[in-house]
Specification:
The complex is a heterodimer. Helices cover 50% and strands 13% of the residues of chain A. Chain A is α+β, with helices and mostly antiparallel strands. Chain A folds into 2 domains: 3-62; 74-157, Glutaredoxin (3-Layer(aba) Sandwich). The chains are: A alpha+beta, B alpha/beta.
């Protein structure tokens, strides 16, 4: 692990704005800062919170927020909650998988994008919903999902 | 976001001086993005489904040119004498026509991050009244009189619950506000914190005063950035103005509030699991007793309220409990009728003409809401099924009898559904009841925290059976097998997730038993079922 990442981790853990600091809040701060939880972060959180490594892993593996390998360039989430399901979420998921050449959720082999299923993105009135890099888009069709994913992959290719 | 940027750019290019505010939802989600323009002395004119290009024309023709674009307007707000040509009053829109806004009174009308706008609209009059004219007991009595029932799902009287905490002499007590809104189909908690977080901050402060508590947490899911940022913004301003912290308004009462974040976990909406999450642990429910009013978060006495419950509190204190109790369905205690006072904040999604958020008096019928206000099912289709109160709430058929159900917590319970958090997902005739049930159980399986094995394994087993039935491979024994699993989940689970987890199946069997039979006996689909059944599975490690 490079020193820059290490220092991002310790900044995230040590300078949380709220007054109640916990194992969970520390892990969320690290995830926000570097996009994943490396084992060095687990150790840093354990040290800061006076918890065992096991305690920290227990929390990190419970919540699906956390990933344990570095993030890809773009995060594509498709909601499959009941409102979105009724409005055709499975066709959106199929279109997203197809656009990314994936057969399930996960990272593309080239590291450009991650596909995640989400149980509820909280915008049910706009169903079906997807989120690209945390920006919500509603009333998605399979075609518009393909276009949005193609757009984001193009922007990844340009830098 | 693109619309806001386009609007600012358009104003700059034309050198027009205007105030651009981002507000929370007005509730008319079907028409979003919504933009409204008010010129000096004129009404507020609302434009629907605004694109960056349309925003540019609105600035050019309306803001700079003074000519509203009636063809894109959905309505205006303001005195009717200001009526612009060809644009109806927004309150005449069916979706708003029968609304009564209490908790949502400011939604869409004030800048949610600006506490001064909240105060200018009557905010903090209630806290001031409580602190200067009422004792904590009197404040709690007002909430008891109002009949306010908890809006998180259980519908327990809030004033009674506050009493459990108020009676505890511990000097350190907590009020928790639950916005862990994982209920698919319900987005009203988020809507309130996005549109008017200050009413919740004032509400939790009043609750703290009424219960002699000294600390509050507002608990929001990580990643829901707008509610998090806006709530934090008003809390910070409340501290600056002496409306939080030491000796509030010189009354001697001190109260601290902070926002706590949880990871993605549906079960952390359960009160004891929420406490585990605030403490930074896995959000798994605790054994009871001890109950939260004795041993809660960080081992201290605690009381949990839903966002909506607290959002009502300022108006109840300001206008009196009697006023709130006069709205809704009346209590008749001699005949065992509890009554449901106040309003319901409903979230409509699915196959319905007008999707969005609305606040209506309890006691209206589902038919009023779904047809008279929300415009029924689009494309000439038949309304078939309603999914209410979150995934554990079960399904109702859209039969005449069910459409005549009045919005009342107990009436819904008797019909086998939950009004609960207020989410209503509407399904038209193309929806297959078996496939929807499978989706609901897939959700419950994914979100089981795993602590109690009847829930952890029962959900997985139910999902397996429902997938089999959906794929036309079910057998006659599967129905009895599901009931057996359901009974075990109900008997052997610590929290509502397992106890109520069979509701989707039992209610679907009650209303749509024939569709299960069609799948099992006739090997026939009963709606627009997906070719390939999709149920993501997660086993929490």
């Amino acid at each position: 692990m490079d020193a820059a990442t290490q220092s991002l981790i310790s900044d995230a853990v040590n300078s949380q704005p709220q007054s109640t600091v916990t194992v969970l809040s520390s892990l969320l701060a690290v995830e926000d800062a570097i996009g994943y939880i490396p084992k060095e972060a687990v150790e840093a959180v354990a040290l800061q919170m006076d918890a065992t490594i096991n305690d920290v892993w227990a929390v990190a593996t419970f919540y699906p927020n956390f990933r344990f390998v570095p993030p890809t360039e773009h995060r594509i989430e498709v909601c499959w909650g009941p409102s979105c399901h009724v409005m055709g979420a499975d066709r959106i998921i199929a279109a997203a998988q197809d656009s990314l050449s994936l057969s399930d959720e996960g990272d593309t082999p080239d590291g450009k994008a991650t596909l995640r299923y989400n149980t509820c993105l909280g915008a049910c009135a706009h169903a079906p919903v997807m989120a690209i890099d945390h920006h919500l888009a509603g009333r998605i069709t399979p075609e518009s999902a393909r276009e949005k994913i193609a757009d984001v992959l193009r922007s990844a290719a340009s830098h | 976001m693109e619309v806001v940027a386009a609007t600012k750019r358009a104003l700059e290019e034309r050198q027009v001086v205007a105030n651009v505010s981002e507000v929370g939802t007005l509730g008319l989600c079907f028409a979003e993005p919504l933009m409204d323009v008010q010129t000096p002395g004129g009404p507020r004119i609302f434009y629907r489904n605004v694109t960056p290009e349309l925003a540019d024309s609105i600035v050019e023709r309306h803001v700079a040119g003074g000519n509203p674009l009636s063809e894109h307007a959905i309505g205006y707000l303001g005195h009717r004498s200001l009526a612009p040509d060809g644009i109806p009053h927004l309150d005449d829109h069916p979706m708003r026509s029968m609304e009564q806004r209490i908790a949502l009174r400011n939604a869409g009308n004030i800048d949610p991050s600006d506490l001064y706008q909240y105060i200018a609209n009557g905010g903090y009059a209630a806290l001031n009244k409580a602190l200067t004219q009422m004792s904590p007991d009197e404040t709690r009595q007002e909430v008891l009189t109002s009949g306010l029932r908890g809006r998180g799902g259980a519908a327990f009287p809030a004033g009674v619950k506050w009493g459990f905490l108020a009676g505890n002499p511990d000097p350190n007590k907590y009020i928790l506000c639950n916005c862990e809104e994982g209920d698919p189909g319900a987005f009203n908690d988020r809507g309130i914190l996005e549109s008017d977080p200050a009413t919740v901050v004032e509400g939790i402060t009043i609750a703290g005063y009424a219960c002699n508590a000294n600390r509050g947490y507002i608990f929001i899911r990580h990643g829901h950035n707008q509610p998090i940022d806006r709530t934090r913004a008003v809390i910070e301003q409340a501290y600056e103005l002496g409306l939080l912290g030491e000796n509030i308004l010189g009354s001697g009462f001190s109260f601290d509030v902070e926002v706590a974040l949880t990871g993605d976990s549906y079960v952390s909406g359960e009160e004891t699991a929420l406490m585990e999450a605030i403490e930074g642990k896995r959000s798994m429910p605790r054994y009871r007793p001890p109950f939260p009013a004795q041993v809660g978060v960080f081992g201290k006495p605690s009381n949990i309220n839903n966002v909506k419950t607290l959002a009502y509190v300022p108006e109840i204190v300001a206008r009196g409990g009697e006023w709130f109790a006069s709205i809704g369905t009346p209590a008749d205690r001699d005949n065992g009728i509890n009554g449901s006072s106040g309003t319901a904040i409903l979230c409509l999604s699915g196959d319905i003409t007008y999707t969005g958020l609305m606040e209506v008096p309890l006691g209206m019928t589902l038919r009023n809401v779904l047809f008279d206000m929300a415009g029924g099912v689009p494309n000439g289709k038949r309304m078939k099924l309603l999914q209410t109160g979150g995934p554990l709430g079960g399904v109702l058929s859209a039969s005449d009898a069910n459409l005549d159900l009045v919005l009342d917590f107990d009436v819904f319970r008797a019909a086998g559904a939950i009004l609960g958090s207020g989410g209503i997902i509407v399904c038209d005739e193309d929806t297959c009841a078996v496939d929807l049930t499978r989706n609901l159980i897939a959700f419950c399986q994914y979100e089981s925290c795993g602590k109690c094995f009847p829930c952890r394994m029962g959900m997985s087993h139910l999902l397996e059976v429902l997938e089999r039935i959906s794929n036309l491979e079910g057998t006659e024994e599967d129905l009895a097998l599901m009931r057996n699993i359901g009974e075990n989940m109900q008997a052997g689970s610590l929290c509502g997730h397992g106890q109520l987890g069979f509701n989707p199946v039992s209610s679907a069997l009650r209303y749509f038993g024939d569709e299960f039979e069609a799948h099992i006996l006739d090997k026939r689909h009963t709606g627009d079922c997906p070719e390939q059944v999709f149920s993501p599975k997660l086993t929490r490690r």
